[in-house]
TrEMBL record:
Transport recorded as keyword: yes
Gene Ontology biological-process annotations: amino acid transport
Assigned keywords, A-Z: Signal, Transport
Taxonomy, superkingdom: Bacteria
Family annotation (SMART domains): PBPb (SM00062)
Domain Solute-binding protein family 3/N-terminal: 38-262
Entry's family note: Belongs to the bacterial solute-binding protein 3 family.
CDD domains linked to this entry: PBP2_GluB
Phylogenetic placement of the source organism: Bacteria, Bacillati, Actinomycetota, Actinomycetes, Streptosporangiales
Gene3D superfamilies: Periplasmic binding protein-like II
SUPFAM superfamilies: Periplasmic binding protein-like II (SSF53850)
Name of the protein in question: Glutamate transport system substrate-binding protein
GO cellular component terms given for this protein: extracellular region; outer membrane-bounded periplasmic space
């Protein structure tokens, strides 16, 4: 008798924790959005035009626009979104640990990252470039990096590329954020920053007359929306949302209002890679 009722209690607990709960780590982002009407989204906080926290605590930029559109398609209003700052090095961990439901943070789709998380997209294609002080004349591309002090961010694809391809010529300083790199180049301690051209364009516009983008890209960076590795339903739903954003004009409008101000040449929407 006692044994049977104890079994019943266990059964009820197992069922209650196994389904319907928004905090279940195995649930798809689709279910979480539908049930809780809330999402936590990892974004950058220091990249003008892309992901920037303003003094009043709000977030602005193209990644924010994309995140907000996708959330809405999943059934979550802007008031249900919590933006959480991510830096390049903690994006996979934040997704794996469930600290965020998705990441929209200039996040390149790579095979190495696909071992840990999955990606919807791409929703934008950038390329690695260099940012230097406005008066710099000699640093005209990656081939001119010899003996230079270069800054990039730990856990980013540009830093990885410099380590694997230019390590002999250059002294690489890895910071936690790109804005920390910007400070060091403006201060004269370092010579250049390397990361995606669209990120660099935002800093060049912010420090107009002091910094310039070299304008010679040397990689292809396809920005994806990162989510849990096994969430196939979530990936499909986010891809559907992006497809809609591309086709209804919202994508172009968001790009113009956020990135357009930097003077960056705006591309066409990319082809989604549904895998
Ligand atoms: N897109 C590159 C990456 O995901 C560089 C930009 C960044 O660090 O966010 O690593």
């Amino acid at each position: 008798m006692f044994g049977r009722s104890l079994f019943a209690v266990f059964a009820v607990v197992a069922v209650a924790s196994g389904c319907g709960g928004g905090s279940d780590s195995h649930a798809s982002i689709v279910d979480k959005a539908k049930n809780d009407k809330k999402l936590v989204i990892g974004v950058k906080a220091d990249q003008p035009g892309l992901g920037l926290r303003t003094p009043d605590g709000a977030f602005t930029g193209f990644d924010i626009e994309v995140a907000t559109y996708v959330a809405k398609q999943l059934g979550v209003e802007p008031s249900g979104i919590t933006f959480k700052e991510t830096v390049s090095a903690n994006r996979e961990a934040f997704i794996e640990q469930g600290q965020v439901d998705m990441v929209v943070a200039t996040y390149s789709i790579t095979d190495a990252r696909k071992q840990k998380v999955s990606f919807a997209g791409p929703y934008f294609v950038a390329g690695q470039d260099l940012l230097v002080r406005a008066e710099e004349a000699a640093l005209t591309g990656p081939e001119a990096l010899n003996g230079k002090k270069l800054c990039s961010v730990a856990g980013s694809t540009p830093a990885q590329k410099v380590k694997s391809e230019y390590a002999k010529e250059v002294q690489l300083q890895e910071e936690r954020t790109y804005s920390a790199c910007v400070d060091r180049v403006l201060g004269g301690q370092l010579d250049a920053i390397t990361t995606d051209n669209v990120i660099l364009a935002g800093y060049a516009a912010q420090h107009s007359g002091k910094l310039k983008v070299v304008g010679k890209t040397f990689s292809t960076e396809k920005y994806g929306i990162g989510l849990k590795k096994d969430d196939t339903a979530g990936r499909k739903a986010i891809n559907d949302a992006l497809e809609k954003m591309f086709s209804d004009g919202s994508w172009t409008k968001a790009l113009q209002t956020s990135v357009g101000a930097s003077g960056f040449t705006l591309p066409q929407a990319p082809q989604l890679e549904r895998y």
